[in-house]
User: Fold these one by one.
Assistant:
Number 1:
Amino acid sequence: MNPPADPPHHHPIELSRVLGIVFGLAVVVGGVIGSGIMRAPGVVALGVRNGPLMLLFWAVGGGVAMLTAMPLVEAGASVPKAGGSYPIATRAFGPAAGFMTGWLTWLQYAASNAFIAVVFGEYVQRLGFATAVPKNVIAVGLILAVAAINWTGTRISGASQSIASAIKGGAFLLVAAILFISPRAPAGFHPSATVHPVLVGAAAVSAMIMAVRVIYQTYAGWDAAIYFSEEVHRPEQNVARATFLGIGLVTLVYLLVNAAALHVLTPDQIAGSELAVGDAIKISMGSAGNTVITAIGALSLAAIVNLQIMAASRITFRMAADGVLPRFLAVVAKGGTPRRSVAVLAIASALFAASGSYESIVRIYAPWSIGSILMICLSGIWLRYREPGLARPFRTPMFPWLSIFAALIQAALIAVVVVDDPLSGFWSAVVVVAPLPLYLYFTRRRRLATA
């Protein structure tokens, strides 16, 4: 069967291929490692009260991420276009499915940027800076500052992400080293005055399920490299290398941080902590430990906002280049940046942050973020049968069973999220179909223009 024809254009619109494997690795590591690793051990320990078993859970989490990434890498290397899941879903299931996938992923990034930026504002104020400034104002300032970095050009924004990811990874390794040389906490040391609210009353089985879910969420972001397939040199090789090597490095960092925390605290002392790594470092650094952890958290959050603005702007760029969004969003500046797409995302994120409306969207975007990975898994399976001759620089082993396994994991996670919060699941479904009139409008305009 012949592949579907690309939307008609007078001239192809492409981004500049100026990024290398270091950048690809940086976006995977930088997109995954965040403040979650400082909070997640407390949730995991509540469900798994055994140190070696906790480390095993974290190792298995990295292994599952690695397996799940295989169908994603196959699809991303086979369809090396900017925009992550959007061009892949479009190639497999047509422009309507691609449009909805792109829309949901973009909206998720816009809301996530706002949420992360507000948390960044909280961290800044914990450090004693801008305490009289509303957190929303600090959040908007971060979004605009990061957008300005992206505005300058792809090389500069890519270098900023690489540098930030290297500093962030090094900082977590330094924290692990400090903890490994720290003394054990006294037996009567109980750092957490209260258990995290979400864990109150959790039964043993529920706590175990929550532990698995939190570990999965802490590994989220390993799909970042495919958003830049159009800009990375030799994407047929480097997308796979960046993704798998990045997941491996993240798994190593997570294991070291958890092992270091367990060197200082027992699982019972970690259980329920809202900031387990911070509690552990207080043993050796006292109150200065809070400053160190807060500074690392602020850096991590700023780097993730930078990455998400880069990634999400590529979604609207590619959708506009394909004619399903206004074409002015596909204009590429001399430095290689889709500036108008960056500006639209920054404005949306800043409005969410300023208004506080991001909170309601954050509650309902969980199924979308998982659904994006599910769509890629399904696309990879379908494309194997629909386009057997498509060039596949990386082929998922044990096809189709491994791809089906990865898809079932995503489907199960979506089910857990929806069952846990049915109302948010309902609104998630509403938002899925909300942009269809917009899609029909632009596709009709495109047909009339090319008639």
Number 2:
Amino acid sequence: MATVNEQITDAVTQSNVKVLAEAPAMAMGTIYQALGHSTAMMFENSVNSQQQQNMLQQSATAQGVIQLYSVDTSADGAVTGGILEVLNQIVKNG
């Protein structure tokens, strides 16, 4: 049976121990990367949702203003005409 140099067995053992010792750190690194990525996606979706809500609010405000300005003004004209008639009578009788 051939003997193996102790330096070789020691080198192989140390490299195996090194790989085994790095496994938990690599696993935690992967977990932290996944956590960071999912948190970033959450914030990105939140900002996108806020932007969509702002656009909806602006369009709703614009529609409200359009409706306010498009109200039939014939009633306003009748009231104004009535006020002018009263003012003319006051001036004539005045």
